[in-house]
Every structure is written in structure tokens, then in C-alpha cells.
Amino acid sequence: MKTILKKTSTAVLTSLLLSSTAMAADVTLRFGHFWPAVSDIHKEIYQAWADEVEADSNGRIKVELYPASMLAKPPAQYDAVKHRILDVTATVQGYSANRFPLTQVLELPGVVQNATQGSCVAQKLYDEGAFGKEYKDSKPLFLFTHGPGVLHVKGKSIEEPSDLEGLRIRRPTAVIGSLLEELGALPIGMPAPQSYQSLQRGVIDGVALPWEGAKGFKLNELADNHTEVGGLYSLAFIVTMNQNVYNKLDDELKAVIDNNSGEKWSSIAATVFDRLDKEGLADAKAANHSIYRVDASSNQETWQPVFEKVTENYLSELDAKGLPGRTVYKRAMELSATCS
């Protein structure tokens, strides 16, 4: 009997050891971003991507997620991948000032009407090589955009640009800052996660974010006036990987990463963002907030001239730098009309 038990115990131990060995990952990827761990963006895009990569690699790749800027602050996340503090990140290109000027054409008014359309434009532009060598420092996996930006203000309704005069509005990037300045506001630069505390303390009067951002960063608890101007702006995002880490993968694992890149995941991200825009709007309605939508005639008379000036100013800046901004903008608008 003792012999049988001993053999059984040995067999079980051997099985456990073999199982443990089989499950051990060959590669561990540290994936950092700035969204909260409780957010749907984290769970439905980045955690979902990590789970699929692990499953497709049969456990050979393990992805460790570091949400809420745990390993690098938002403006430093792209460089954190370049210098391998992170192996993968999801970040806003515009947070890295002057590094992605052609990509930031996507931020201009009128380019993006919703996340599905905008993400299609962003990914196709990248796939066509429109952004040149802007991503030479990393291995881009997929690009996407959020939906149209909305003005969320505490205590004041914004119906025309003059209503923004002197208001301190959080801006995500320098391009959006220029837009807000032309509209009469005082743009205050800060990453989205800092918006709630800044609005709560009165450091700012409002924020420029899509409805998804208002929901994800709980701004509907503070801002009670919201203004939608069709195609006001959007932001481009990227999920990108350290190039050397990718290069060192064997062909099988490279294929796993490649199969979880491009249009497939760009589209998945866009679907999540569009749904959250609807939920953020619904939250504001449920709270009986003031929601003002600029109609077509008001847009043409008061907002559109500002949009056209901001667009021309930015494209002229790219011209001065010898960059093909007008070519990229023209192609973006062509894709904007056909992407859905």
C-alpha cells in the first residue's frame, strides 16, 4: 500500500511540475497606460488584447498590465517604451509634443465624426505610410481615435465661441490648445486623469474631452453644461511595442503579435469608444445637465471660420517644416468620407 501511495504521489508531483513548466511564459510584456484599472477601456481593450495574445501564444507570452500610469506618466509613456521601462504602451501621440506632427493632422476640426470612422482613417493612414518616419522609435501595433471632443463646463452654458472668453479649459494637446485659444478660451495643458481634481479645485472651468472621457474620468459629477460642436476635434491613440523586444521574438511569437495588430484591434477599440460616448451622454441626460448642440447654421456662421483658420495655421506650420501636412490632410479627408 505504501508503495502504491508513493508511486501515486510521485506521479502527481511529476505531473504538476510538467504542467508548471508547460505553462511558464517564454516572454513577459509589461504593458502600461493611463486609464484607471476599473475603466471599460482598460478591461475591454487592453486586458482583452492581453488575454488574446496569451491565448494565441498558448501561454508563451504573458502580459502584465500597469494601468493608471503606474510605471510612467502619460507624457512619458512613449519614451518609456523606447527605453524599455515598458514593453508596450497605449498612449496619445499628441502628449509627446512635436514628435508626431503628421499624425496630429487627425486632431484638426472636421476630420473625425466618431471613433469608428476616425480609427479607420488613422489605421489606414499609418498602413499607407502617410506618417513617414514618425514611429521609427517603436513597433506600432494599432492606431485608433476617440469620438468627437465635447466642451464640458461647470456652471456656464457654451453656445457660441464668445461664451468661452476667458474660461480656463483643459486641453489635451498643443493643437487643441491653439483651437481653444482661437475660440477665446485659456487652454490649460494636462493629461485627462488630472482633469477631475483640477475641475473640483477650481483650477480649471471646464474640459475638452469626448463623452467617453467624461464618463471614464467621472467628470459628469462636476461639469453640468456640455456643448457638442460636430467634429470639434479628436485625438489619435497608439498601442506600440519596443522594437527590440519584438525583434527578439521567434517567428511563432512574432506571428501572434502581428495577428493581434492592425485593423482588427483598431476596430475593436473604436467600438468600445463609440459605445462609451453613448453611455457618457446618457449619464449627463440622466443627471438633467444642460446639453447644447450647435446646429448647422450656427456652426457655419460662428464656429466654422475658427475651424478653418486653425486648420490653415497648422498646415502652414507643417509646410514651414518641410512636412507633407497638406497631402496627409487631403488623404485624411478622403478617408473620412469613405470610412465608416
Describe the secondary-structure layout.
Layout: H1 2-23, E1 27-32, H2 40-56, E2 61-66, H3 77-82, E3 88-92, H4 115-127, E4 139-145, E5 150-153, E6 168-171, H5 174-182, E7 186-189, H6 195-200, E8 206-209, H7 211-216, E9 225-228, E10 236-241, H8 243-247, H9 251-259, H10 263-286, E11 290-293, H11 296-320, H12 325-338
Parallel strand pairs: 1-2, 1-3, 6-7, 6-8, 9-11
Antiparallel strand pairs: 3-10, 4-10, 5-8, 5-9
Protein name: C4-dicarboxylate ABC transporter substrate-binding protein
Keywords: Signal
Signal peptide: 1-24
Describe the structure.
Helix 2 (40-56) links the parallel strand 1 and strand 2 (61-66). Residues 1-22 have low confidence and may be disordered. This protein has a domain at 150-233 and 277-338: D-Maltodextrin-Binding Protein, domain 2 (3-Layer(aba) Sandwich), CATH 3.40.190. Helix 4 packs antiparallel against helix 10 (263-286). With 340 residues, the protein is of the alpha/beta class. 46% of the residues lie in helices and 16% in strands. The longest helix is centred in the last third of the chain and has 25 residues, at 296-320. It is globular, with a radius of gyration of 23 Å. The strands form two sheets. It has a six-stranded mixed sheet with strand order 7-6-8-5-9-11. A five-stranded mixed sheet has the order 2-1-3-10-4. The protein has helices spanning 2-23, 40-56, 77-82, 115-127, 174-182, 195-200, 211-216, 243-247, 251-259, 263-286, 296-320, 325-338, and strands at 27-32, 61-66, 88-92, 139-145, 150-153, 168-171, 186-189, 206-209, 225-228, 236-241, 290-293. It is built from twelve helices and eleven strands.
